[in-house]
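User: structure tokens for Interleukin-20 receptor subunit beta, please.
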Amino acid sequence: MQSVNMRHMLRWRPPQTNCGIVQYSVQFQGEFERLYLNGSWETALDCQQISQHECNLTSDLASDSDYNIRVQAECNNRTSSWASLPAPFNRRDTVLLAPVMSVKVSGDTIQVGFSDLPLSVSVTVDVWRKGNERNVSSHVVTARPSYLSITALQEGATYCLRAQAQLETSTRNKSNNTDTQCVSIHTYDNTIQVLPLPHHSP
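Assistant: Done. Predicted tokens:
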């Protein structure tokens, strides 16, 4: 099982067999099925009688519970026994990558954006003025789309930013920090000065 940024992919090795086309079916069992449905198994609808050796279970494993997962092979009307993961899978164990951060300056405002943030993931953005690294302000981004505006910044100053993703349901699961990006604040006076008309003597 491989889970990166809340995308859960089950992969397996094909059996050694001389039969024709082998097809695979995947089932999963969460805590709800074990506790309230007499240990029944749910069918992964997108992974029934497929020929690929992988199954995307992102939409199926939609809660923070422990899931048992199994796969079965079928060939020439014969089915194998179920092969199960050696341990339950929980999406809280997903590997979070450092978020993709873009930084733009508009007047005295820094606009920060993040692309392809998975659901259930928030981002903490640390901001500090260059030369004043001990005074860091932190901002948490949870809304979709994921944008942050930092306003009323000092003209002529340089500000640095870094970000870290965190699973909202598990404070222990965090990504590495992004590379630090530094930008300078430059505002311009857009006022038009009207010069006096020249004085002509009569």
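User: Anything notable?

Assistant: Helices lie at 31-36.
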